[in-house]
Amino acid sequence: MPIQFNQKKKQFHLYNDTLSYIMELDQDKYLTHLYYGERIRNFTMQRPYPEIDRSSFSPNPENPSTRGFSLDVILQEMPGQDSGDYREPAFEIIYPDGTSATHFAYKSHRTFAGKKALPGLPATYVKTDSEAETLEITLIDSIRQVEAVLSYTIFEKLSVITKSISFKNTGTKAVTLLRAFSSCFEFPDADFDCIQLPGAWAREKQLVRHPIHHGFHVLDSKRGASGVAQQPFMALARKGTDENTGEVYGFHFVYSGNFSIRTQVDTYSQTRVLVGLNPYHFSWKLGPGESFQTPEVVSVYAKNGLNEMSHNYHALYINHLARGEHQYKERPVLINNWESTYFDFNETKLLQLAKRAKDIGVELLVLDDG
Predict the structure, then answer these.
(1) Which domains are present in the chain?
(2) DSSP letter at 200?
(3) What are the residues whose beta carbons fall under 8 Å from the beta carbon of 23, sequence distance 6 or more?
(4) Which residue ranges does the record assign to the Glycosyl hydrolase family 36 N-terminal domain (predicted)?
(5) What is the pLDDT of residues 282-296, one digit of tens each?
(6) For residue range 203-232, what is the model confidence (pLDDT) as tens digits?
């Protein structure tokens, strides 16, 4: 389950027995994405991602004469705003002068056994450090004096990658975060179906499947909470994928507030998936020295269909997200009086309900006035 860094090629390879996730430092500073999928046993990367003349409509501000490179078309791990990429950005920072251009470049990285907790947030965990390994990559805009630490954890026995980002203001003046997605996933093609779980009261989590297409597709909640209308989950499945065959990528946001999952297919049929906090009405002031931690995104890769994806999520959440006394045993049984009485109840009715419930093994009565 190691995380390897090829110093010569500037490539990161996260892998276990079932998956590989590969990134590269392009020009020694841009954190680009190379591959996410079935485990690669012998990775040589003799054929780099093609640099194609994209024309002047996809610019390279640092070197205009080099038309084969542009942030507007390469696959990235941390796409920004106002720096040459006109697709959906993963973050937006407003500075005291009102501008928002941020140019993150590689600063450093470190790996360690295990997985850190996210302060104040729900997140997956490990019982022993041998169960997972974590890579932290620090990006910096030295002019703007802001840093972003991208955290990647790969589990030893599960086909799972988790991601989150911590933003830090290293300057002397306050800045404002207006957008802070937890992760960006990039794919070199768009041959996918989207699987989502919309719904309503009493008909939650209706499975809807449809092809993705050029342009934007957004799943979100602006209610202040995730809920019945839309779940903080999406999957991208290859055409023909069913319960037991075919590739599928799952994306789940471990957060119960406003969320957004944004899928964009660009003009070259490349796919970007952003998962994280909904930018709608989001604003967070970062004073000098302060940090902001995004919630966690859990991504599962499965090569044997939707059932395999589900089993990976189940195993992860039972063993590495659930906590407490009832992690591995049945919960106590309770009865709620609402459906029995609605507003029409008194002491006599409640006692009768409690006595009958006790006779069949119910352990708790919840008084619910609606």
Answers:
(1) 3-321 (2.70.98.60), 334-366 (no CATH)
(2) B
(3) 11, 12, 31, 32, 33, 34, 77
(4) 30-286
(5) 999 999 999 999 999
(6) 999 999 999 999 999 999 999 999 889 999
